[in-house]
C-alpha cells in the first residue's frame, strides 16, 4: 500500500515501470525543515533542490509548502516558471551557466544567482549592465572538506569542478571582483559539501572554515554576510545499512554551529538557506516493476529481470547505490530465495539490486523498490530507446497521474528522415 492505495491496482491502472510518490510524506519532509528553523527562531529559506525530481506537479507542491527553489539549468527554471513558482524565491546554480541561462534568470528577475567561477562574474556583469538591473548573488566556495560519501557526489573538496577555493584565495579574489561591479549585489556565501551525508561533522567543519574566512573578510573588506547558504546533502535511508538523523537534527547542528561563530566574530546572525533535494523526496517514492524473465545459474546466482532498470534508476550503476525491495503482490509471503534484480538494458552493469531475499519470484510479480524519489526519474534516460516511465502522486488516499508514460511517438518526435 502507498498512502491507502493498493500498489497492484495502481500497476493495473497506469502500467509499469511506475514511480509512485506519497505527497503527504513530501509535505512532512518539507515541513520538518521549515518548522525546525521556525522553532529555533532563525530566519531561513529552505530551497528544494529541484535536480532531485523536477516536474510541474512537484514544483507546485514545493510552492504550496512555501519552499524556495534551487535550479541549475534553463530547463529546471522553465519548469519552475510553468509551475508558477514565485520567481523571487528561485536561486540559480551551475558551474557553466550560459549567457542564455543568465539572461533568462535576469529577465525573469529570479531571487539569486550562485556565482561559481570568474568567467561567470564578467558574463553576469555585462548582462546586468545591458538590462540596467541589479541581481543578488552568493559566492559558491569550496571549503576543502572531504565528506564521507561516494567520490562522484563529493563537491566541497579542493579538487572540485564547483566554486571558488577558500584556501588558495580565489574566493577572496571573487569578492573583490564582485565589489567592483555596479550591478552585482553580494549577499553572502554558499557552500555544499556533497550528497547523502549522515554525519554532521562535515557540515560543522565547513561552517568553521567559512567563518575563519568571514572573520578575515570582516577586517580586510568590512564584509558581513546577510545570507549563508549551507547547501543540501542530508542523507536518507535506502537500506538497513543507512542510519540518518531526523531532518531536524541536521538543521539543529547547522544553526548551533553558526551561532558559536557569529558570537565569536561579532556579526549579526545571517539568514540561513539550505538546499535539500534527496531528503525532501527520496524516501517518498517507490518504483513498481513487473517481473519478466528469470535466469537460474545453479550454484552461482539467480537473476530476475524487470521491465525497467538503469534507464529509470542509474544510481546502482553510477554509484554502486544500494536499494531494498519487496514483491508488492506477495508482501506477506515468507522469504524463499535470494535473487539479483537485473534491468532490461543491453549492459551487464544494468543491475538494480544484488542478493535480495524474496518469496518465490514468478513471471508477472510486481517488484516495489523503495526510496526511489530522488535522482531516479530526474536522471532517467532513453538508452535502448526505452520510453520514460509514468509518475503518479498519491495524497490523502487519492491517486493522480502527474507525468504521463512516454510513447514511441514521443521518442521519435525529434527524429527527421534522411531519405
Ligand atoms: C549545490 C547543490 N545544492 C543542493 C544539492 C542537493 O543535494 P541533496 O539532494 O543531497 O540534498 C546538490 C546536490 O548534491 C548540489 O550540488
Ligand atoms: N545525483 C546524485 C547526487 C548528486 C546531486 C547533485 N549534486 C545521486 O543520485 O546521489
Automatic annotation (TrEMBL):
Substrate binds at residues 278, 315, 319, 347, 375. CDD domains: PLPDE_III_DapDC. Its EC number is 4.1.1.20. The modification N6-(pyridoxal phosphate)lysine is found at residue 51. Homodimer. Pathway: Amino-acid biosynthesis; L-lysine biosynthesis via DAP pathway; L-lysine from DL-2,6-diaminopimelate: step 1/1. Pyridoxal 5'-phosphate binds at residues 233, 275-278, 375. Its cofactor is pyridoxal 5'-phosphate. The active site is at residue 346. It is an enzyme of class 4 (lyase). This is Diaminopimelate decarboxylase. Specifically catalyzes the decarboxylation of meso-diaminopimelate (meso-DAP) to L-lysine. Coiled coil: none annotated. Keywords: Amino-acid biosynthesis, Decarboxylase, Lyase, Lysine biosynthesis, Pyridoxal phosphate. It comes from Aquibacillus salsiterrae.
